[in-house]
Specification:
Elements: H1 8-37, E1 43-49, H2 58-66, E2 70-76, H3 84-100, E3 105-107, H4 118-121, E4 126-129, E5 149-152, H5 163-167, H6 170-174, E6 177-180, H7 183-192, E7 200-202, H8 209-212, E8 230-235, H9 252-265, E9 270-274, H10 280-284, H11 292-304, E10 308-310, H12 316-320, E11 324-327, H13 332-335, E12 343-346, H14 358-363, E13 368-370, H15 373-385, H16 392-402, H17 411-423
Helix pairs in contact: 2-17
Organism: Brumimicrobium aurantiacum
Keywords: Transferase
InterPro entries: Glycerophosphate_synth, TagF_C
Length: 426
């Protein structure tokens, strides 16, 4: 009862003090763990995957696997936020795809529907997380691994102004190392993090390593292989109205039917790929939006269309083999710049830019913006089909000014080197 009468300002002060105490404890634990692991012959590394499209550690995983001092394993954790069906399908798809790619991978759900105790059965020395949210079971969250060395890389290239989300959650507060994208993001951490960014390390963003690695050969992921067809990705975000969330800039409901019409209209010229955010399906399936039946029918239309398809997993090969993208995704705002290909952002309203940080706002000056169906059609006709990419020079200048690689290395190599510097000292 006493808690009910404590003023909010006092509660906030108490919470900040408790966070500082926990940070101090965690830092002390991490120092001891580092010293302990320096004398260990083989270091066990667990990667916790919730859904496949947010996997950014491919190159890092295989760098660790090639080094006899590390034993990396991927654990596919249940995505519990949108029901049992989506949790099961996400887990099974990720598990099967990772097996095909040569990962050592385990589902966390056993045949008897119980969940494995990773601490007990694998006892990892280091855990890499892929998501800061509580989208999985408590035993797979950072709060259960405060006695271990924990690492995190944002699952998307941070372009939003949600500084609390990016710098003040448990993940950023208690991780041993947060591998961040640029010096700009490190400066934000120094400003907004309770730890003043002392655990943030600038390595670059591993999610785009294969986009910029000249030695990487993408797989063919498009349904049609006719080289005369232009290939356009449509990537709607999940932040549709009606959920009272922090962001609400998705234009999906405005353009869902129109994009199907465009795909039909341009079937002799364009191959479209519907690349929805993984959270979009769960939100659409809510009865107050579309409901499950309408959502499934819509997704099936894209999957079964002659010149259409759907991509719900990884997207690097899709990006590399595309000709352009139309989207309203915060992460893709910067990620697609790495392809040096034309891109259009769908503006839900004039206030959208205010939801982005300074780096994100800079991008709006170098890409095509759509405020109407006519703008989308213009982009397709003039920029994609006729190849009048008048903004290419501006995008390339932005790339050179803000997105150069730290240490002239891929992010995964920078992360690998950072781990080895700390853990392999004698």
């Amino acid at each position: 009862m006493i808690k009910k009468y404590i003023p909010l300002s006092i509660k906030n002060k108490i919470e900040k003090i408790l966070i500082k105490i926990q940070i101090a404890k965690t830092k002390s634990t991490h120092k001891k763990e580092v010293l302990k692991l320096r004398n260990k012959e083989k270091i066990k590394v667990a990667f916790f995957l919730i859904y496949e499209s947010m996997w950014k550690y491919e190159k890092l995983y295989f760098l660790l696997k090639e080094d006899e001092r590390y034993e990396p394993v991927v654990f596919v954790c249940p995505f519990i936020s949108y029901g049992e069906d989506i949790a099961n399908s996400e887990m099974e798809r990720a598990y099967q795809n990772f097996k095909k790619k040569g990962y050592t991978v385990h589902k966390t759900r056993n045949e008897d529907q119980s969940f494995i105790d990773i601490k007990q059965e694998f006892n990892p020395d280091i855990i890499f997380f892929t998501n800061p949210w509580n989208h999985t079971l408590p035993q797979y969250l950072i709060s259960n691994f405060m006695d271990k060395l924990t690492c995190y890389t944002p699952y998307g290239f941070n372009s939003s102004n949600l500084h609390k989300v990016h710098f003040q959650m448990n993940m950023q507060n208690y991780c041993w190392k947060v591998f961040t994208e640029t010096n700009f993001h490190k400066e934000l951490a120094e400003k907004y993090s309770p730890r003043k960014g002392d655990n943030f390390v600038v390595t670059g963003y591993p999610g785009i390593d294969n986009l910029i690695d000249n030695q990487y050969n993408p797989n063919e992921v498009w349904k049609k292989t006719n080289k005369t067809l232009k290939k356009i990705i449509w990537a709607p975000h999940h932040t549709i109205p009606g959920f009272k969330k922090l962001l609400d800039y998705s234009t999906f409901l405005d353009y869902a039917e129109f994009m199907l019409e465009l795909a039909s209209e341009y079937k002799e010229e364009i191959q479209f790929c519907f690349k929805p955010h993984p959270n979009l399906k769960g939100k659409l399936s809510d009865d107050k939006i579309w409901g499950k039946e309408k959502t499934e029918a819509y997704y099936s239309q894209w999957a079964n269309m002659e010149n259409g398809q759907i991509a719900e997993g990884g997207y690097i090969d899709l990006f590399l083999t595309s000709d352009a993208m139309i989207h309203d995704s915060g992460s893709f705002l910067i990620e697609y710049i790495y392809t040096h290909k034309p891109v259009q952002f769908l503006m839900s309203n004039e206030e959208v830019k205010s939801q982005f940080n300074e780096l994100g706002k800079e991008v709006f000056n170098v890409i095509d913006l759509a405020k109407s169906k006519a703008d989308i059609r213009r982009f397709i006709e003039e920029v994609v089909i006729k190849e009048n990419d008048n903004l290419k020079h501006k995008r390339d200048t932005f790339y050179n000014d803000f997105l150069n690689l730290p240490n002239n290395k891929l992010a995964s190599k920078n992360i690998f080197d950072e781990l080895s510097r700390d853990l392999l000292k004698k």
